[in-house]
Protein 1
Amino acid sequence: MSEIEVTGIKSGIRDYWDTQGIIYDFGYESDEECEYWQNLFKEVIGESKKNILDVGSGTGFIAMNLAALGHSVTGLDFSDGMLRQAEDKMKKRNFKWDTVIGDAEHPDFMDETFDVIICRYLLWTLPNPETAIHEWVRILKPGGTVVIIDGNWNRNSESYAMKINKRIWFICRRIMCGYTGIFGHDTRLEKDLPLFGGASADKISEFLRKENINSISIRTLDELPDIVKRNLPWYLKIGYRYGGRLHMVCGDKKRV
């Protein structure tokens, strides 16, 4: 696996995610959560086998659940550290999908390659989210589905309680998991991330409409934080407090 060359803000973002790889999924891979996502994907993209690109795949949690449903999955990410964790996960879970180093804003695939494009918690990390969505639609087959999972993160108006909980979360991971990486994002990057405070369902829908995506639907995922918290180890429950609201926005590419 070889790295791609990135500069400027993307270099800083990649450095952050490279350090997060070793603990990103810790406590987030319960059987209950996997069942939740798999049932959701069955509803949204159907059960027939599809060729799917998981953009910003990270450690492969979404890719793993799609592979478990029998789909052919490619996980794209520009963090080598994250994708190494994904490959370790394949071995432990006995699933297989392709991993590719690449830029989510400029995926190096031919036009109309995939049946489904999916991303989770990615848009807020992109300096040019509209460019990314334009490219995703380019490599999506006519009639194919784009699925964007994101949230309103409320980062720009965090309460003191939220900040304290984040610090507790970090300390617990350091003590119990041996994590010594970055505590938070470099605040200098925030001004260059237009969706740092969250990608609302309305904003995502607006982006998709500009790309002539049809049949746009929105589903809130209010039950997910409770599922996550129920299955966390006790020492991570102490600092777990969710301050946003999650949603899934889906639509289909217009047929020619």
Protein 2
Amino acid sequence: MKYLFALLALLMGLFAVVQYNDPDGPLWMLLYGVPAIWAGIAWLRPRLLAGTGSLVLLSACLLAGLVLVVVLWPPAEDWWRTDVWWESEASREGMGLMLVAGALLAVLWRSLSLRARRAEIPH
């Protein structure tokens, strides 16, 4: 699991960095940076995910990401085809938000599994 979250953190961080020349780059740096930070926590400090506060904050981030996926769902037909998303920025942005939501969902899964494991340990 450690390697999966390392990969997610590095990919989301890379996605954030390459937004530097985009007209709406700061927004996308934030959108990619949030899951990069959460995946980094899951990679380097997973125990921080076991707390209630982190679960609430992570859930809020995931909910926001899912709402953005629904609101900015790619409007083009066959948006997954290379010839479509290569030309349609809205399709690329929609797919980017799907990646954000997927990364946050993976971190939430890790958080819930850590909480379940912590609950099994007798105090």
Protein 3
Amino acid sequence: MPSHRLLLWAGALGVAAAAGCYRAMPLDSEAVGKALAPPNMEAIRVQAKTLQHPLLRPIEFDERDGLSPDEAAILAVLANPSLRAVRDQRGIASAQVLQAGLLPNPALSSGGEFPLRAPGEVNSYALDAAWDISGLITRGAKRDAAKAQAASVELDVAWQEWQVAEGAKTAVYRVIGLEAQLTGAEQVEQRLRDNLKIVKEAVDQHLKTAVDQAAAEAALQEAHATVLDLRQDLRKERLALARSLGQPPGAEVRIQKDTLLPSRLALPAADEFLKGLEDRRLDLVALRRGYESQEATVRAAILAQFPKVEVGIHHTRDSGNFFTLGPTLAFDVPIFDRNQGNIAIEKATRRKLFDEYVNRLFEARSEIATLLAEIESTADKLASAEGAVPILEELVRVYEDALAAGNADILSFYGAQNDLAKKTIEILKLKQELVELRIGLELASGRYLEEPARAPAAPAAPRETQPKEGRP
């Protein structure tokens, strides 16, 4: 067999050997159902102890006594389906690093001529083996770019995991706050319902007027509307919490009952949040790695100005059965295209990334300052509201005694009671707002802050007063 045919057969076998094996990944109901199955809590307990994350800490996870805010954050990171697609970017980045390090394949070509009616002449052929060596010039820069981009992707994944964890923690505190508000609102509704019953009996005995009954009914309707609104908000937040934890819509998520909504926050000084911010905020670090990748990409684009060069070997046999063997060299002549277009694009992209990093850092600093100011303002409002509670309780007691003595009207008494109930709910809302601001400060600063202490016992319900039996 002629040598050129042997060479072609060898090339064909090489291509067949290099071909990868295809494995199907069906998108059917069985595969989707398996992916959407609730997480295995035993596996979650093991993973939570060995979690490795730049910001989240490993914890002793035990959901059997209800989820704490930190446990909800870890569960969200380990079980939230939205993070699976985010983590898949790691595989893409790793593949890009692999691709950037691959050398270009050599090229084989062959041709032949077959003489017709030419006695004594033989078939001629030509064999060429060539390799494009210009890829070696940019290979190092492209590998550097791919590695920096892979590091950027890794940090961006961790940043998104941190955001999901903080979102789950926020949902837990919202559920706790709404449950407390709902409990207080239901107590107020029940008290007003009992009061209405007493007023109706007094009206039947001609001790009170229809105006008094209408006032009691209006107060009850307002309290009932508040209860319905809070139930709706609580139902919505429970669904949001289940979704963030990777649980099906109907799943019941138990929360630890001894988790406090803080009245005060012990925070470091403002300078502590700004110091080292560029190294704590994972999105900023990811942007820096992305900028390093783009720097390498610009360098690769500049190196790509070097003309394309192919070296090889040329072997022929002519029809007279004469053999030749010699080197070949082919290169582009950079007259029109010197890769200036790609260089301009990559430089513009680098400038965009630089400005994006500066803007993100500026926004982070501004956001921290804003959150600290809002925390201070909310803490002042909360202190003022808590200070008003004893005054309102005393006012209710005075109206209660005056009403029993016949020296006050029932409308004033109901007004004082409603003011106390509204102030109690306002305090709960301010506590919830305060803890959400703290979580926002964690996100803005990339810094984990200690959770509020757990309550030693269930907090006492606010003092409730109502007219003495038989005396509306």
